[in-house]
Specification:
344 residues, mainly alpha, MetI-like fold, 13 helices, membrane, transmembrane, transport
Length: 344
C-alpha cells in the first residue's frame, strides 16, 4: 500500500511540475507575443524621433512634413489594427506573425534617412532622401496619375488578350492531341526566347507603338497561361473522364465539368506568372518606345537627372503591381475555395 501511495504522490508531483512548466511557458509566450506586437510601434516612433531630432548633415536641405506625416499614418493604421485585434483572434495572430517584418520596414526607413539626409553617406543627386521623394511625388502627382492610368490601360489590354488566347490554346492543346501536334512545336521554339527580344521588330512592324506594346505583353502572357493550362489538363486523372463518359457526358461536358475545374490551380499559376511577364514587358516597352506610362516617366526623369521623381515613380510601380497581384490572388482563392473543403 505504501508503495502505491508513493507512486500516486510521485505522479501527482510530476503532474504539478508539468502544469507549472506549461503555465510558465504560456506566460513567456504571452510576454513574447506582446513584445512582438509592440515592436513595430516602437520602431515607428523611433523613425519619427530620428527624422525630427537628429540634426541634418545637409543644412540647405528642405525638410517638410510629408515623410513625417507618412510615418504617423503608418503608426496610426497599426495602432488601429492592434485595437481591433483585441477582439479578433485571427487578426491578432496575423499581426504577431507580421510584426517583425513591419519592424524591419521601419528600420530600413531609418537607415535610408540616416545615410542620405543625416550623414550624407549617399549623396545627391543619385540618392535623394525619403522626404524629398515624397515631395517629388506630390509635386508631379498629375503626371504620375496620368502615367499610372496609361500603364494600367496598356497592361490590362495586353494581359486580357494574352490570358484569353492562352486559356483557349492551353485547353485545346491539353485535351486534343491533334491541336497539340501543330501548336506545341512553336511553343518549344518561342518559349526559351524572352518576349522583349521581339520588341524592336514589333515596334517597326506595328501600325502604332501602343499596339506593338500590347502584342509583346500578350505574347508573354499567352505562353505562360498556355503552358500552365495544358499541363494542368494533362495531369487530370483519366479515370475521371472514363467515369463521366460512362454516365453519358459529352466531350464538351468533359472539358467544361472535369478538365477546366481540375486544372484551375495550374491555370492560376499561369495567370500569376503571366502577370509578372506582362509587368516586365510593359516597363521595357514604355522605356523603349511608348510615349506614355510609368516606364516612360522614369526614363524621362532619369534623362533630366531628377532622381527623386524617378524613385517616386518606382514606388508607385511597386504599389500598383502589388495591388494587381493581390487582386489576382483574391480571385484565385475565391475560385479555389472548394479545395479548402477537400483539405479539411
Amino acid at each position: 500500500m505504501n508503495e502505491k501511495q508513493d507512486i500516486k504522490e510521485n505522479a501527482h508531483q510530476g503532474y504539478d511540475k508539468l502544469d507549472e512548466q506549461v503555465s510558465v511557458s504560456k506566460k513567456n509566450n504571452k510576454a513574447r507575443n506582446i513584445f512582438r506586437l509592440l515592436l513595430p510601434l516602437i520602431m515607428g516612433l523611433a523613425a519619427v524621433f530620428e527624422y525630427i531630432y537628429v540634426p541634418n548633415n545637409r543644412p540647405m536641405a528642405k525638410q517638410t512634413n510629408f515623410y513625417n506625416g507618412f510615418l504617423w499614418i503608418l503608426i496610426g493604421i497599426y495602432v488601429l489594427s492592434l485595437l481591433i485585434s483585441i477582439k479578433n483572434k485571427n487578426l491578432r495572430e496575423k499581426l504577431i506573425y507580421k510584426a517583425p517584418f513591419y519592424s524591419l520596414i521601419m528600420v530600413i526607413l531609418i537607415i535610408l534617412d540616416v545615410l542620405t539626409l543625416k550623414t550624407e553617406k549617399l549623396r545627391l543627386p543619385y540618392f535623394p532622401y525619403v522626404d524629398m521623394i515624397f515631395n517629388a511625388i506630390v509635386k508631379d502627382s498629375d503626371y504620375i496619375m496620368e502615367s499610372t492610368l496609361s500603364s494600367l490601360k496598356l497592361l490590362f489590354t495586353g494581359y486580357l488578350i494574352g490570358s484569353i488566347l492562352g486559356l483557349i490554346t492551353g485547353i485545346l492543346c491539353g485535351y486534343s492531341k491533334k491541336v497539340s501536334y501543330w501548336v506545341e512545336p512553336f511553343m518549344k521554339i518561342l518559349g526559351p526566347i524572352p518576349t522583349t527580344t521581339w520588341l524592336p521588330v514589333v515596334m517597326v512592324l506595328a501600325t502604332t507603338l501602343f499596339k506593338g506594346a500590347i502584342f509583346i505583353i500578350a505574347l508573354g502572357v499567352w505562353f505562360s497561361v498556355t503552358l500552365a493550362t495544358m499541363t494542368g489538363i494533362r495531369s487530370v486523372d483519366k479515370s475521371y473522364y472514363e467515369a463521366a463518359r460512362t454516365l453519358g457526358a459529352s466531350e464538351h461536358q468533359l472539358v467544361r465539368k472535369i478538365a477546366i475545374p481540375s486544372a484551375l490551380p495550374n491555370i492560376f499559376q499561369g495567370l500569376t506568372a503571366g502577370m509578372s511577364s506582362a509587368c516586365t514587358s510593359l516597363l521595357i516597352a514604355e522605356m523603349m518606345g511608348v510615349e506614355s506610362g510609368l516606364g516612360w516617366y522614369i526614363n524621362w526623369k532619369k534623362s533630366w537627372a531628377e532622381y527623386a521623381s524617378m524613385y517616386g515613380a518606382i514606388i508607385i510601380i511597386c504599389l500598383t503591381f502589388l495591388f494587381v497581384n493581390w487582386v489576382l490572388r483574391k480571385l484565385r482563392d475565391r475560385a479555389l475555395i472548394w479545395q479548402e473543403g477537400m483539405v479539411n
